[in-house]
Amino acid sequence: MAGAAETASDLETLRRAAADCTGCELYRNAEQTVFGRGPAPARLMLIGEQPGDREDRAGEPFVGPAGRLLDRALTEAGIRRDEVYLTNAVKHFSFEQRGERRIHQTPTAAQIRACRPWLDAELRVVAPAALGVLGATAAQALLGRTFRVTRQRGQMIDWEGHAVVATVHPSAVLRAPPERRAELFDGFVEDLKVLAAALQ
Ligand code: URA
Question: I need a labelling partner for 75 at 20 to 30 A (CA). Which of 64, 142, 193, 195 fits?
Answer without folding.
Answer: 142
